[in-house]
Amino acid sequence: MPDAVSDGEVDRLMRDLEAEAEAGGYHTNPDREFTRDLVKGLLANRERYGYISCPCRLASGNRDDDLDIICPCDYRDPDLADYGACYCALYVTADVEAGKRAPDPVPERRPGPAERKRQKEERALVGRAPGTLNYPVWRCRVCGYLCARNEPPETCPICRVSRDRFERFM
Amino acid sequence: MQDVPGVDRGRVVLYALSTCGWCARTKELLTDLGVGFSYVYVDLLAGEERDRVVREVERWNPRVSFPTIVIDGAKVIVGFREEEIREAVGA
Questions:
Q1: In the 8-state DSSP scheme, what is residue B83?
Q2: What's the topology of domain B2-88?
């Protein structure tokens, strides 16, 4: 890997990711060497772009356009449900972690550029729709956590992603 | 584009990301099979060159996902699909 990332940094992030995953009921890939390389990729991307975008996807460098592929990505949970692993295979299900089954190959779920643009416009419209609720309901696009309050929390209390990963749900 | 020398099984081009574990496995597989191929790390390109290569990948694989292998400008394999890759390069 061309970008210089120190071993200490890689170990630290790997430890943090593993601890956070287990605390939230998620699991990282038990293939330590493979996982280590992915974590190195995350750090290389943080160095390049300022955020840990998916090591297996091409980031644009514009955070707003890359929000859905900042790890954990918007596609992790549905991919875990359908294939036993997320797209890059940093996260796996409990049975894969335990070695009871191998994960299936994960096809790319992220829509192409044109569809992403359309979805983004759609989300902007939902955000503006007049509601009859006392509070707007916000949904974490990563884990599905819902909360009714004026603004989404700064950090998702369930999966720890940042406020900009929330969308207006109702 | 970097060239890896090996047995001629047609023009094998691997579009990859330098940070991706599946791209690394694909490159390793082709190397182990002793097939001659060319590869490019798209994430390490910049500016116009990157745009040009991304458009090239998009022609073969509209989702622009990696790894993408193109063989003889005709057959496309998306993802680390070991059996398919072995079959396509006749190894």
A1: H
A2: Glutaredoxin (3.40.30)
